[in-house]
Amino acid sequence: MDKPVNNRAWFLVLPVLVLVAFSAVIPLMTVVNYSVQDTFGNNQFFWNGLGWFQEVLESDRIHAALGRQLLFSAIILFIEIPLGIFIALNMPKRGFWASLVLVLMALPLLIPWNVVGTIWQVFGRVDIGLLGHTLAALGLDYNYVNDPVDAWATIIVMDVWHWTSLVALLCYAGLQSIPDAYYQAARIDQASRWGVFRFIELPKMRGVLLIAVLLRFMDSFMIYTEPFVVTGGGPGNATTFLSIDLVKMAIGQFDLGPAAAFSLIYFLVILLISWVFYTVMTAQRETL
Amino acid sequence: MRARSLAAGFVIAALLMLGLLAWLILLVPAEDGVREWTGSLNPGGWMAWTFPTALFFWVITALLLAFTWAAIRFPETPRKGVLGILTTRGDRLFISLLGSAFVNLAWLGLGGAPAWGGLLVSLIYAAAVFRWV
């Protein structure tokens, strides 16, 4: 890269900037304004300085929600990434079955979040749901409405069902791009199946795996609709993740100040992750 | 010719920004001749503006304008710093601003008083970003 960058083309995105300002920047500015003030309604605001930020940073309730959020993201990454790789390795490489499997794998990704939530909400019910009823018939004491462990299990299985396909499809694309010559060389060297995976397939999937991990982390860190539909954050606060807690605080309790401070911190974390994601993706493109 | 019209455009933008700042200062409510800097700029009005938050966005807008001008006036080559990624001045500004937010939050979370201490740390951080990233 020896040529200086000419940034004048940026002026062409000004119309988009106006639209984004209308739909995102101005609301965000309002949130910033709310985050340093207190209100009792009636659009009257009183200065509170950085008090809400202090409160949010020290709040046990938000620390607990953050803990649950990180635990959730860690668990689903721990399951979905290896499972996605395993499925991708076993998917047919070409022919009719390859096309059929690709379509079947893509199906869960096409379903809207709230529908996924509703499907699992009904599926898990002990009275009418197939899963809940079957587990009860097997003598298992399963009830996601009352039991925190069951609620967590249901939400995790739901997320795995919904999103493992994405990891599998990304890995599949990575695997398909490996030329046959690599496998032929491995056969000549009498490499074991594990050796082929460890030294050919895994290194070649590194790029797509990184994208999969970041995408799944970001999505799961912002998850709202599915757990909200299935458990509503309960039982108690067992499945109250950051976004559910935020909505409770802002709309349920009308605590605009703390909710604004909370959402700004949440926004900054997401912005940081998005930046890392973008940087990693562009760095990868440059090395290709 | 184009360079001149561009410069004129940015001079007008700078004047508008100064005018905006003056207008914001005029909007600050005053009681018995004493300005209440944290008072509402538009009581009961849209977006609940205060002077400190308005100044915050004014500074960011001014920085964006200044960096836009600099990017056009002094074209640059992206460079690789300690992070191992290619960055332009704009990228370094973004890293500085985003990092500063976290620096200030950390300052606040660690019980740091006064609040401007966090600002001071983030200025040092920003200088480091522009030097080494």
TrEMBL record, chain A:
InterPro entries: MetI-like, MetI-like_sf, Sugar_ABC_transporter. Signal peptide: none annotated. The chain crosses the membrane at residues 12-36, 70-89, 95-116, 151-175, 207-225, 259-280. It comes from the Bacteria. Residues 66-277 form the ABC transmembrane type-1 domain. It is found in: Cell membrane. SUPFAM superfamilies: MetI-like (SSF161098). Its main location: membrane. It is a multi-pass membrane protein. Keywords: Membrane, Transmembrane, Transmembrane helix, Transport. Belongs to the binding-protein-dependent transport system permease family. This is Sugar ABC transporter permease. The lineage of its organism: Bacteria, Pseudomonadati, Pseudomonadota, Alphaproteobacteria, Rhodobacterales.
TrEMBL record, chain B:
The chain crosses the membrane at residues 46-72, 93-110, 116-132. The keyword Transmembrane applies. Keywords: Membrane, Transmembrane, Transmembrane helix. It holds the Pfam family DUF2160. This is DUF2160 domain-containing protein. It comes from Paracoccus benzoatiresistens.
